[in-house]
User: Fold these one by one.
Assistant:
Number 1:
Amino acid sequence: MNASIPKTGVLINNFNNGPFLEHCLESIFSQVPPPDEVIFYDDGSTDNSLEIIQPYAAKLTVIARPHGQGSPMQNQADAIHAAFRASTAEIIFLMDGDDAFLPGKIAAYLEAFAQKPNTVMVQAPLEKVNESGQPLGIEFEPARHQDDYLAHIYAENELNIYYPTSALAFRRDYLERALPLDLSDGLAIWPDARLALVAPLFGHVAAIPRPFSQWRRHPRSHTVVRTSSIYQHVRLHQTYFNAFSRALKKPTISPWRSRHHRRRWLRHYFLPDFLVNTFRRVRWLTLSKEKKRQMLMGPNPAEMEKELQRLRRQGLSAG
């Protein structure tokens, strides 16, 4: 029976995440089953990251290189590719050095991959935590849970389909086709987005309803300090997806057929930031305590359970 279980590997991308690495590694090695291999890529950290991982050295393949001279996106893409080349696993989990796995993740993801042989990507919501590890809520989006992602993309002309890096796992044959990533288009799109956005063009994508990763939100996190607007962010994704689709001779999407795109466009071009911020402050003052709790801490348990039951009926639950 063990011979039928795919070999699993975790690719950790690290740059100056020393304070969080022990928790990160413990969360990986306490998995049941544990991963068959863990590739740790250090991008020239100037903190004590390499000292922190020494007690785990026998369980790691360490790639320590000087800090990349490209953009943070290019450096991360290079790290993922180098770690992937050093791996042999069939199921590859991505991981940032400041994040962590929750118990049962590897087992749940393996079950999700096994449900359909053409599954190329599995993901799940994340538990958001602050710099000290205290919970901030759940990163959960119903749009990221679809029975058929490609049909959803073309029907809605929307690409809000994936969770961030540490929630993603891929089948090896997909990554062999996708890596190394070509960033010559100049689009400011992170590697996790580039891999996840086009994965439905290559096979089935599955989402597990419950969180299986911790996503740390702290001042150095790139998604925390991002300055681009939601409209600009989404337009970059649409441009990338359509260019990739045209190269594969696949259908493209039309942003103007998306009601969400039209709303984002109006807000971006006709509402100054101070008006948007004023509206948000007024709206916050008028919200009930329960609604504020939901916005701060994620969906309430009743909503999560209702969504989980719906997803189970669709066959998406892996546990």
Note: The chain is about 40% helix and 15% strand.
Number 2:
Amino acid sequence: MTAPERVTYVGHATVLVELGGTRLLTDPVLRGRVGPLRRHGAAPAPGLTQGLDAVLISHLHHDHADLPSLRRIGRDVRVLASPGGGEFLGRHGFADVTELAPGESARVGEVTVTATEAWHPGGGRFERESRAVGFTLSAGHRRVYFAGDTDLFDDMGKLGGELDLALLPIWGWGTSIGEGHLDPERAAQAAALLSPRIAVPIHWGTLYPLGLARLRPGPLSTPPREFVARARDLAPQVEVRVLAPGEATSLA
């Protein structure tokens, strides 16, 4: 029986990628609350973290490298992390950590994981000092790009070519986003540069400050609609699939 090739948008930047019989989980945030941020949408499915082959950490900001979520998975999980991640996670008991700088690769089962450039400066309340990266995942004829958290950067277009899927951040966790992030307009520009067969928007609709959902609900639902509209204009060759937290799609 052929293993499924699909992605599940767990929420925020957490995506389960099933490729080549390998299960990879990106930037796990599995809790109902992270500091003052409350989770919206579906909770992670039971069994989500069972049988994981590795976790990918794009950078060490609290909403991407959430220690309680990583502990829930287990300290023996294999982690591929951005530069600086090995020392940080090692201090917290995670022993199997490999740092990948842009251009460096590691093999996980049938998947080759390669770190890519990203532009995401730090400095906010949820941000540990760290360097950010993205990742490409390749297995057989399949190729997936997980952008992590980034804005547009000069060589982004060089990551394109024969991409089955691009997982593109389109928002954040608040009512506005600052530098180092893609909003729906710039995410559509990224889709145009990368020209993947499929684009799935991530980093939206999941984490939001406690109490704001009633007062300013728009950022929980409008970013993907705006992304779809702008991608239709800027990247009409790309099929956009919007997944709510908890939903999955095949790479077929």
Note: The helical segments are 67-73, 85-91, 184-194, 212-215, 222-234.
